[in-house]
């Protein structure tokens, strides 16, 4: 029987990001993938501004930028012709990074192979998950048909909307059944069609072409001549969810929006999806946790799905590592579900609303709602609110104390700022928490936690961080304590566990 510390089922962006986060903390993991090799299908196509910030925290954004197609300066809500602006959220990254999911997966997997000690086992199917004393046993069948058992302290299901792990454990997946059905495809368009776009612009341009009510079609140019990413959606279900996507099916959907002169010369890859909206009630079932589409699914509007899973992984990774290393304070691991479940529930709500507005256009009442919302989104405060929701920049976790005065930073992402010639984000690459402080004695007080929290002394707090003498920030970039309102040692113990008996020197 093989042993490891964490078994991760699924090698999509969520599973790979989680493996990377665990490796940063010195936790061993095995990533199991039932596909024989990576599909290369682009699927999702963007990093939202908050996810771009989180990639920056780990030194991944430059590599993602090299592999990206474009930076898009805005977002959209239900295709309404008012761009969502990201500038009002104090972000250095007020844009979407257009990078196909396949390239995100390649980036993360290459990083795992580069000294992180975790590998993806392709062609390995999970056939059973059983909780045992002190851990779980995961039964598998490998590409050669050989059955094996892996014993671990925890397992994490990152295996998608049709999660095998979730089904094996009979975990309910309540929600809303599909009303619209779609196809996402990588395809080549033959030269000569004047109506297809040739470059990226505003997000709202994606929906500017008229078409049949209740239908949608997008053609987005990639960075190779003639190569496009296409999404087609409408109310008619396929005869079989698993039936192959044909050229004729794709052309019929595209012609309705882009004209009959568009010819699909080759389908590189294609898959089906729906607007079903579902979420597990808890992201933890004993020693098994759920992340990404295994925990929640929704219609892919607004470009939120891959981002939601990547952010799940960033939230979970350091907490699970602390639990395994024995440094986690009581209840830390349970904050994963408590924090991330409401975030995903909000995404499910906004995507259901967008789906209704986009796929019920023949209803006069829906047309009236669209007209009203169009006007609302021209109001700067309303636009900022929706932009924060879609981008993830407005996420605020319920972090606080009974006595501390509330502060705009408490529970929110740390706004990046320049500190003594470096960016604050650069101090999170190791995956530790960070204490930014001005007090001369704070580094000494931090010493017993120096294996978990980095000390960064600041001569003067930047103007972007007003009214604080110090900030304690979690490894995922969210502010969990403010000095002097919160006691430093109490905050360190509350988030990073008991002090080490033999403290190492604080990192400068």
Q: Care to describe what's here?
A:
This protein has 508 residues and is of the alpha+beta class. The protein has 3 domains: 2-45 and 100-174 and 278-349, FAD/NAD(P)-binding domain; 183-274, Alpha-Beta Plaits (2-Layer Sandwich), CATH 3.30.70.2450; 418-496, 3-Layer(aba) Sandwich (Glutaredoxin). It is 29% helix and 23% strand. It has helices at 13-24, 49-57, 61-67, 101-113, 164-168, 247-258, 305-325, 334-359, 364-377, 380-391, 442-446, 488-496; strands spanning 2-3, 6-9, 29-32, 46-47, 70-72, 74-75, 84-85, 96-98, 120-121, 125-132, 135-141, 147-152, 154-157, 175-176, 181-189, 216-221, 227-234, 264-274, 277-279, 284-285, 288-290, 296-297, 418-419, 422-423, 433-437, 453-457, 470-473, 479-483. The strands form 8 sheets. A 6-stranded mixed sheet has the order 9-3-2-13-21-20. A 4-stranded mixed sheet has the order 1-12-11-10. Strand 23 and strand 24 form a beta hairpin. Helix 1 packs parallel to helix 7 (305-325). Residues 504-508 have low confidence and may be disordered.
């Amino acid at each position: 029987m093989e042993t490891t510390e964490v078994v991760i089922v699924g090698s999509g962006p969520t599973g790979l990001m989680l493996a990377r986060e665990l490796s940063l903390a010195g936790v061993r993991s095995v990533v199991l993938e039932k596909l024989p090799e990576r599909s290369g299908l682009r699927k999702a196509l963007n990093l939202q501004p908050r996810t771009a910030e989180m990639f920056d925290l780990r030194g991944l954004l430059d590599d993602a930028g090299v592999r990206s197609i474009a930076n898009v300066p805005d977002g959209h809500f239900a295709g309404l012709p008012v761009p969502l602006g990201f500038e009002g959220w104090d972000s250095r990254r007020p844009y979407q990074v257009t990078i196909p999911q396949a390239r995100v997966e390649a980036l993360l997997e290459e990083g795992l192979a580069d000294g992180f000690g975790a590998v993806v086992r392709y062609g390995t199917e999970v056939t059973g998950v059983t909780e045992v004393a002190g851990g779980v046993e995961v039964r598998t069948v490998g590409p050669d048909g050989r059955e094996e058992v892996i014993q671990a302290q925890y397992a994490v299901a990152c295996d998608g909307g049709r999660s095998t792990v979730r089904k094996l454990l009979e975990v309910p997946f309540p929600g809303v059944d599909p009303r619209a059905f779609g196809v996402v495809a990588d395809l080549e368009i033959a030269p000569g069609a004047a109506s297809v776009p040739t470059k990226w612009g505003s997000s709202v341009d994606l929906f500017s072409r008229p078409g049949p009510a209740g239908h949608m079609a997008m053609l987005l140019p990639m960075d190779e001549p003639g190569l496009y990413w296409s999404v087609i959606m409408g109310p008619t279900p396929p005869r079989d969810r698993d039936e192959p996507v044909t050229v004729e099916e794709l052309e019929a959907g595209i012609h309705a929006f882009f004209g009959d002169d568009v010819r699909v010369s080759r389908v590189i890859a294609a898959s089906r999806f729906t607007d079903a909206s579902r979420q597990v009630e808890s992201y933890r079932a004993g020693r098994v946790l759920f992340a990404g589409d295994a925990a929640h699914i929704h219609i892919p509007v607004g470009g939120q799905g891959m981002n939601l899973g990547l952010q799940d992984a960033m939230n979970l990774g350091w907490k699970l590592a602390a639990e395994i290393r024995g440094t986690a304070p009581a209840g830390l691991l349970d904050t994963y579900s408590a924090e991330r479940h409401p975030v995903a529930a909000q995404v499910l709500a906004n995507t259901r609303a967008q789906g209704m507005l986009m796929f019920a256009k023949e209803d006069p009442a829906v047309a009236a709602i669209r007209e009203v919302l169009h006007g609302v989104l021209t109001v700067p405060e309303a636009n900022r609110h929706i932009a924060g929701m879609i981008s993830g920049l407005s996420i605020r976790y319920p972090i606080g104390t009974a006595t501390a005065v509330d502060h705009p930073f408490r529970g929110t992402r740390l706004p990046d700022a320049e500190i003594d010639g470096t960016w604050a984000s650069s101090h999170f690459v190791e995956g530790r928490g960070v204490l930014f402080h001005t007090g001369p004695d704070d580094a000494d007080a931090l010493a017993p936690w120096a294996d978990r929290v980095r000390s960064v002394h600041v001569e003067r707090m930047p103007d972007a961080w007003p009214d604080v003498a110090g900030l304690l920030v979690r490894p995922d970039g969210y502010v969990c304590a403010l000095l002097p309102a919160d006691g430093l040692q109490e905050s360190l113990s509350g988030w990073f566990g008991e002090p080490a008996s033999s403290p190492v020197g604080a990192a400068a």
